[in-house]
Design brief:
By secondary structure, the protein is of the alpha/beta class. It has nine helices and eight strands. It has a four-stranded parallel β-sheet with strand order 6-7-5-8. The protein has a two-stranded antiparallel sheet with strand order 1-2. Strands 3-4 form a two-stranded antiparallel sheet. Strand 3 (75-76) and strand 4 (82-83) form a beta hairpin. Helix 3 packs across helix 6 (147-163). The longest helix has 22 residues, at 50-71. The radius of gyration is 19 Å and the shape is globular.
Length: 233
Amino acid sequence: MRIAILERDKRLCVLCIRSGRPVVAHSVDHIVPKSKGGTDDLDNLQSLCRPCHAAKTAREGSAAQGALKAEAQPSIGPDGRLIIPRDWGFSIPRGVRPSAIPLTIVCGPPASGKTTWVQERAGSGDKVIDLDEIKVRVGGVRYDQRTGIFRKAMAYRDMMIRSLADDVSGKAWLIVTAPTKAERLMWVEAMGPRSELMVIDAPEASCIERIRADAERAEVAAALIAAVRRWER
């Protein structure tokens, strides 16, 4: 699909073309982000150069942070009473509402195969919430530990989780580490009766071996291995 969009747009950045500058495109972008209901339809995809793609992603990340702050504030309910968003703790967004569509919460240690498990089961119209993938969307790389990228990615992730309450079709998949039973059960409670839990409890040695063999994880291997051992404990 990426190649088809680049070919359709003559491999030029559509935003630069509008400004009268022919610039080679390297990325294919969702015009309306999937977190806001955008789809993979061809009409919702556009070719962008790297600077335009990075700038658009940064704007969307800032919008996500603003939405996160706004939605976490007290509000007035239909009965006139003050609604105080619940603080769930862990990394669960404050004030999150139950998912309106079937949601599978996939937990496990780093390198346990959570992403692969979801990819093998998710449909083309499903929403997949994967923090590592979101880091790429906001201008970073998978396993990025830079503070700015991490904060943008978390805000974007929280916005996607909040939007599940308003979805009307498809399924959703949420990938989290959640190393303790208490955290996993809290996620299920927060996301409501349409959520289910899948725990991928891969052996510690296998996870560590995968981390050490993965060049993408090289810079953060020590932190990931420590997380695997925390999970095991």
